[in-house]
Design goal:
The chain is α/β, with parallel strands linked by helices. The chain is built from eight helices and five strands, in the order αααββαβαβαααβ. It folds into three domains: 33 residues; 57 residues; 66 residues, DNA polymerase, domain 1, CATH 1.10.150.
């Protein structure tokens, strides 16, 4: 081998020496990698990321905020959020919001509609409240000047009885007392007592 190397030129000897050195380095590196502990498998990384994507920020719900808020609409919120959080996401309340009629501390549920009520302006003077008898708020009905519609609006007085009152007034003249209604067919003592505070001669 030594005689063979002696017969080679200088450039060939350098090339063979370089190849030998590379083989020696590769052999040492291979033994080092084989003896070092194997790296932990990376297959777990996607599981960790997946878990973070499901739990990061908490579970979400969707609520519909309407009423006296600045930006009504659908909003995504954490499952632990309260009505106050939904109102805040909707831009807050307007000046007409009636906050006394809503519990801002109540918890939210998925699909819930959050209604922020508005302040109802006072009823106009003389206007009856819902379910209230109009005659009780606008003053007594005068039997001598009442129209068919006004008499028909009295409790227990339908169009037939209202027409009888008009006929009696035409035949007998003006009513002098509420007790004159006792002469109208269909108005008995009980009905008369019911109408006593609602009508006047």
């Amino acid at each position: 081998m030594i005689g063979y190397m002696g017969s080679l030129g200088p450039s060939q000897r350098r090339l063979i020496a370089a190849v030998g050195a590379l083989l020696l380095v590769a052999l040492i590196a291979g033994r080092h990698l084989a003896s070092s502990p194997r790296a932990a498998p990376s297959a777990r990384a996607p599981d960790v990321l997946a878990g973070e994507s499901h739990t990061g920020g908490g579970a979400k719900i969707i609520v519909h905020v309407v009423g006296a808020v600045r930006r009504p609409g659908l909003y995504h919120l954490a499952r632990s959020a309260r009505i106050a959080d939904a109102v805040r996401r909707a831009g807050g309340t307007t000046k007409r919001a009636n906050l006394e009629a809503i519990n801002l501390a109540a918890p939210l549920e998925d699909g819930l509609q959050v209604v922020v009520p508005r302040i109802v302006p006072p009823a106009a003077a003389g206007a009856p409240e819902p379910g209230e008898d109009p005659a009780a708020t606008s003053g007594p009905i005068h039997l001598n000047t009442a129209t068919m519609e006004e008499l028909d609006g009295l409790p227990g007085v339908g169009p037939v009885t209202a027409q009888k009152i008009l006929d009696w007034r035409q035949e007998h003249g003006a009513f002098t007392s509420v007790d004159d209604l006792d002469a109208i067919p269909g108005i008995g003592p009980a009905r008369l007592e019911q109408l006593r505070d609602l009508v006047a001669p």
